[in-house]
């Protein structure tokens, strides 16, 4: 019997988390010993009470502060490992899982696989380009079907994003990275490389984790038999949001300087200097903090 823990981080998002847990409760367990861990990341509302009332069967870990995506997930990973889990599955709280989503664990039949990711659709009506699709296509529009990394520009992107699923990504295959939206890891990976990097706090911690795992000799695979839907609510906002601008800018420099070819590192350094002279205050602060070694939670949007 496989011992699997699902880790879900909640931050003032009880409605989404409860819906996610409802879908998990209907998911086929296939004989697995399954534990679901909700890490409440210092919510300021009554999330813990709401979640506990709706789903008393889950384990809730309440943190006294918001530790970001990395810190929240690390608390759950550590708990799962301490309690003997063989596999840890990170799921965003704004996802809904298919009844067969747990088949993702079958990716690990090959002992060389250390990390696996699901086929992820936008939830119907949550697509970036809502007017592009027919009613029958909604719910079949890709959010993630494997990853791509443009090393020349140090950009990580999702394969298939915005495409309608017509069977074009139905093959199990290796991928450069697995999104933290749905990422299952074997415990040996954590034993070998540790948990997510708390330096990063928010954004690109999944990319860094995957690159470390690959360096350690593990395969990363996209497993299309496991399907989930992503509401894409974005508790931290999306592109163009000040929080996004800050952490993506700072953390992209970190990842690039750690893994990219030398010519890309030079280009990133030059780009960083232009940000220091630019008009975007968040990017200026991000670059300054990178050079000063200020990591973790260093930025919060100004309250209006």
Description:
By secondary structure, this protein is α/β, with parallel strands linked by helices. The chain is 32% helix and 23% strand. It is built from eight helices and twelve strands. Strands 1, 2, 3, 4, 5, 6, 7, 10, 11 and 12 form a ten-stranded mixed sheet that branches. Strands 8-9 form a two-stranded antiparallel sheet. Strand 2, helix 2 and strand 3 form a beta-alpha-beta unit. Helix 1 runs parallel beside helix 2, helix 6 runs parallel beside helix 8 and helix 7 crosses helix 8. It is globular. The model has no long low-confidence stretch (mean pLDDT 95).
Overall pLDDT level: 95
The biggest sheet amounts to: 10 strands, mixed
How many helices? The count is: 8
Strand content: 15-25%
Shape label: globular
Distance between the termini: 52 Å
Number of separate strands: 12
Share of helical residues: 25-40%
**Radius of gyration using CA atoms only:** 19 Å
Taken in chain order, the helices and strands follow as EHEHEHEEEEEEEEHHEHHH
What are the segments in which pLDDT stays under 50 over at least 5 consecutive residues?
none
Class computed from helices, strands and strand pairing: alpha/beta
Which descriptors apply to this entry?
two-stranded antiparallel ribbon, 304 residues, 10-stranded mixed beta sheet, single chain, alpha/beta
């Amino acid at each position: 019997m496989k011992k699997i823990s699902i880790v879900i981080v909640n931050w003032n998002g009880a409605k989404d988390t409860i819906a996610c847990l409802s879908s998990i409760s209907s998911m086929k367990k296939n004989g697995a010993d399954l534990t679901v861990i909700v890490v409440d990341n210092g919510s300021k509302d009554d999330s813990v009470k709401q979640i506990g009332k709706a789903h008393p069967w889950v384990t809730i870990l309440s943190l006294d502060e918001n530790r970001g995506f990395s810190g929240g997930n690390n608390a759950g990973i550590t708990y799962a490992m301490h309690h003997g889990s063989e596999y840890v599955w990170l799921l965003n709280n704004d996802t809904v899982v298919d009844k067969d989503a747990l088949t993702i664990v079958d990716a690990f039949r090959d002992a060389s696989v250390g990390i696996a990711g699901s086929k992820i659709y936008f939830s119907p009506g949550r697509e970036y380009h809502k007017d592009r699709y027919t009613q029958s296509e909604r719910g079949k529009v890709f959010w993630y079907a494997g990853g791509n990394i443009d090393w020349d520009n140090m950009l990580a992107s999702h394969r298939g994003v915005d495409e309608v699923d017509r069977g074009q990504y139905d093959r199990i295959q290796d991928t450069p990275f697995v999104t933290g939206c749905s990422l299952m890891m074997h415990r040996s990976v954590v034993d070998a490389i540790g948990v997510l990097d708390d330096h990063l706090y928010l954004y690109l911690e999944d990319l860094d984790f995957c690159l470390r795992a690959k360096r350690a000799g593990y395969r990363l695979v996209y497993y299309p038999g496991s399907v989930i839907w992503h509401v894409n609510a974005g508790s931290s906002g999306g592109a163009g949001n000040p929080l996004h601008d800050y952490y993506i800018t700072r953390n992209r420099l970190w990842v690039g300087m750690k893994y990219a070819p030398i010519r890309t590192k030079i280009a990133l350094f030059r780009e960083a200097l232009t940000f220091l002279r630019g008009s975007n205050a968040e990017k200026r602060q991000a670059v300054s903090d990178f050079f000063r070694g200020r990591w973790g939670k260093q930025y919060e949007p100004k309250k209006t």
